């Protein structure tokens, strides 16, 4: 689905209007429509995440099925043994190398699924920086301890889905951000 010019790295997250994405190791809302969007976007592609994001998934839901899971951690023993289809890496750069080696399509997609340092490293990566971000905004006033990256004005915004009400209550919208 993404361009014909080699592999790409995208980011995907859900935030509230203030940019909050997490609280106490979890996501402070439940929007099943967004979980389905996350799943359909990332399934079939390697996903790179930090250890706390890995730990935020209930053990029965990890590794996320149908996609190679790569967890960045200095403590691989906390991840090992959780099952097949999960790798650890000591840095974002190492995780990206691994993800590239796992692609079977030379124009394949890799998804950086959080948290904060993973996205910061992905944005700053020289050879293969982020060029796409899918951002769901959930219209809830919540407290949190983890925030989304700020995308500066080099990014172009395109609406994917206008405000709609989740079956679980909160309003949400979806945007795509791209840059060359
Ligand atoms: N709303 C959303 O879309 C969304 C998405 C993702 C996560 N979240 C939430 O965000 C929170 C987790 O995110 P977080 O930012 O706190 O943590 P995180 O990035 O998931 O994990 C942090 C840990 O990962 C390792 N790590 C991450 N980046 C690294 C890097 N570049 N180089 C080396 N090691 C790195 C380190 O592990 P070690 O300590 O093992 O060395 C670090 O302590 C949770 O609340 C989760 O639910 C929300």
Automatic annotation (TrEMBL):
Catalysis: reaction(s): (6S)-5,6,7,8-tetrahydrofolate + NADP(+) = 7,8-dihydrofolate + NADPH + H(+)
Source species, domain of life: Bacteria
Name under which the protein is recorded: Dihydrofolate reductase
UniProt record similarity statement: Belongs to the dihydrofolate reductase family.
Enzyme Commission number(s) from the entry: 1.5.1.3
Pathway assigned to this chain's UniProt record: Cofactor biosynthesis; tetrahydrofolate biosynthesis; 5,6,7,8-tetrahydrofolate from 7,8-dihydrofolate: step 1/1
PROSITE patterns with a match to the protein in the record: DHFR_2
Pfam entry (one): DHFR_1
Transmembrane region(s): none
Keywords recorded for this protein, A-Z: NADP, One-carbon metabolism, Oxidoreductase
């Amino acid at each position: 689905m993404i361009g014909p010019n080699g592999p790409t790295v995208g980011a995907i997250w859900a935030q509230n209007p203030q940019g909050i994405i997490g609280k106490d190791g979890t996501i402070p809302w439940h929007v099943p429509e967004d979980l389905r969007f996350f799943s359909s976007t990332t399934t079939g592609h390697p996903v790179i995440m930090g250890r706390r994001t890995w730990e935020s998934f209930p053990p029965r839901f990890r590794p996320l099925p149908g996609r190679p899971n790569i967890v960045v951690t200095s403590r691989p023993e906390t991840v090992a043994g959780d099952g097949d289809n999960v790798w650890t890496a000591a840095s974002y750069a190492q995780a990206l190398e691994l993800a590239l080696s796992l692609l079977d399509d030379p124009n394949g997609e890799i998804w950086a699924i959080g948290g904060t340092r993973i996205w910061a490293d992905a944005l700053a990566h020289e050879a293969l920086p982020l060029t796409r971000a899918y951002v769901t905004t959930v219209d809830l006033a919540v407290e949190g301890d983890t925030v989304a990256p700020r995308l500066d004005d080099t990014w172009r915004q395109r609406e994917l889905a206008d405000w709609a009400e989740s079956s679980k209550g909160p309003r949400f919208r979806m945007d795509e951000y791209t840059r060359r």
